[in-house]
Amino acid sequence: MSGGWGLGCRLHLLAGALLAAAPGLDDKPALAQTAASRPSYENHRFNEDWSPLRDPALQTDLLDPLKWIPLNRDGSAYLTLGGELRARYESSRDPVFGLGTPRRNDYALLRSFLFADLHLGPNARGFFELASGFAPGWAGEPPPTQKDQLDLLQAFGELSLPADGGALMLRGGRQEMSFGSSRLVSVRESPNIRRAFDGVRAAWIGAGDTRIDAFIVRPVAPQLGTFNDSNDRSQLFWGAYATVAIPALPGLKADLYYLGLERDEARFAQGVATERRHTLGTRLFGKRSGFDWNVEAAFQFGSFGTADIRAWTVSANLGYTFADLPFSPRLGLNADAISGDRNLRDNRLGTFNPLFPKLPYFSEANLAAPANLLDLQPNLTLALTPKLNVTLGWNPLWKQAEADAFYAPPLTPVRGSPGGSGRFIGQQTSASFEWSATEHLTIGGTYVHYTPGERLKQAGGRSGDFAAGWAQFVF
């Protein structure tokens, strides 16, 4: 155990030393000349391709020697090293509308990632990523998603082969996955330890935006300790996900997907049983003439013990950007209708399961799971500078089915919340900012105030606040 702590601390110290040097890393004039040709940092680090740095003229950053390390004479075999350090402070008062614990929690979240991406010619690669997370100041014992001294976040092998009109990718091992807008499959960004899966994934990658993925995996369950994370044998997840452009309508793209989940001892307000759930869905998204849209609908069926599952969701994220006005304001509207269970005593479960959704979903306060909900979230985003955005939002929430529970993240029915009179859950107002200080450094913060509705007040709910600030350094 002590050896794991030592290595985890060394990861933090290495990334910390790089963070201290961050303000001097970027040569802005040189980057401006070659910005169109240089690779960029991605949310999924394995998507980055730093092979263009074969050209010495593109090596304009102090850390470029880590991104392109040739291992043979012609450079067909090369290594990329990289990582992340994130320091985050959070203060929470009366979480989950006052129904969560502890009532007050002020703590730091420190995480560091370090990866090696080994390319053995154009068709084979291995990707390995270590993760370390600590939560000093946490009231009580932090959950494993916040405190995991040292473990493998990702470790997979990959083959890429030419295929008819595109390429075929085969990947096996521990890996991150996210699809579409991350409503149903996401990396879980806010906690220290991101979500990963153990299993296999295949993809056909065509021209433009065309891509079809298929996978069968088990989610990884973080554990307190060192190199002891294992997959959750009580869950099996499989599916197929396709993305295509719509040539007849410029700017419009579509996703089509099927997702399957088998889960032991699944808990809903109706009870506890084995869940076998199938999800069919589609998403339309794009941008045109100042408008942007992201609309998604999904239907679920299957079994919950002896009961049938019939559930659904419809979600939309719509906006218009006034590019000619000062600060380029974007007026947005997010809306969700997510089914709940109308009768807890019949032989049908109507509660939607969001599977492995992004966290946070509605705000950084992480008040509600996207199940049995109706919500609206008008919002305004201002670009105060080209690299500094501020967003303001208001978000009332209702139950979709009055008989069903209010579900706390990740998907837990809150005691005392089923039934009652009235659907109104509560509301939250939020303000956040994000500043891309350099190519490597991002600084952000948020404040959320929330008040429960009468039904949650009767269950013991109360008003509360959440505030967070963070600095994230990638290399």
From TrEMBL:
Residues 78-467 form the Alginate export domain. Keywords: Signal. The keyword Signal applies. Residues 1-20 form the signal peptide. InterPro entries: Alginate_export_dom, Alginate_Permeability_Chnl. This is Alginate export family protein. It comes from Bosea caraganae. The lineage of its organism: Bacteria, Pseudomonadati, Pseudomonadota, Alphaproteobacteria, Hyphomicrobiales.
